[in-house]
Amino acid sequence: MLGTTLPDRSSGQLGVINSDSNGSTDAKSLRVKLVLLGDSGVGKSCIVLRFVRGQFDPTSKVTIGASFLSQTIALQDSTTVKFEIWDTAGQERYAALAPLYYRGAAVGVIVYDITSPESFNKAQYWVKELQKHGSPDIVLALVGNKADLHESREVTTQVSAALDS
């Protein structure tokens, strides 16, 4: 690899810079491990399927353990980013497996259902867990899902924003 240093590939965070036969490093290829965490039924799998396949399935089945998908996007500067996405199961019985999936993750997406204070409480747990045990430079995103049910909203944007402070 020439020129630019990125975090080690084996960490699972970011990947390689590809160079052409002239040794130019114009084209970059990054690999980013992304994990979704949250309570069961908050819509983690639906978010992933929308991102990867552009589809929404309201009858989505419960994830067992975790599922893996990937999505590659091209940026305007000739960089490609391959997201390696781990969609974890939200049931309590699978919580002990979560560290296997978030280890080495560059991005943690914590999802809660805006109509469920219980799912928001679990989201707070996952934020703290990733801050404590995740990669030191992990990027966290808190996602309030099911905005189509806004009339039944129980977790206000003010409450969720307070978690960031």
Q: Describe it for me?
A:
- This is Roc domain-containing protein.
- It holds the Pfam family Ras.
- The chain is α/β, with parallel strands linked by helices.
- It has a domain at 33-67 and 85-162: P-loop containing nucleotide triphosphate hydrolases (Rossmann fold), CATH 3.40.50.300.
- The chain has helices at 44-53, 98-102, 117-133, 157-162; strands at residues 28-38, 66-74, 79-88, 107-113, 139-145.
- Helix 3 (117-133) links the parallel strand 4 and strand 5 (139-145).
- The protein is globular, with a radius of gyration of 17 Å.
- It starts with 27 loop residues before the first strand and ends with a helix.
- The model is unreliable at 1-25 (pLDDT under 50).
List keywords for this structure.
165 residues; 5 strands; Rossmann fold
CATH third-level topology of the domain at 33-67 and 85-162: Rossmann fold
Number of helices: 4
Give the structural class. Answer: alpha/beta
Report the count of strand segments: 5
CATH superfamily grouping of the domain at 33-67 and 85-162: P-loop containing nucleotide triphosphate hydrolases
Outline the low-pLDDT stretches: 1-25
- The helicity comes to 10-25%
Give the C-level CATH assignment of the domain at 33-67 and 85-162: Alpha Beta
Q: First CA to last CA: what distance?
A: 39 Å
Mean pLDDT: 80
Helix-strand pattern, N to C?
EHEEHEHEH
Instruction: Please tell me the CATH architecture of the domain at 33-67 and 85-162 by its name.
Output: 3-Layer(aba) Sandwich
| Largest β sheet strand count, sense and barrel closure | 5 strands, mixed
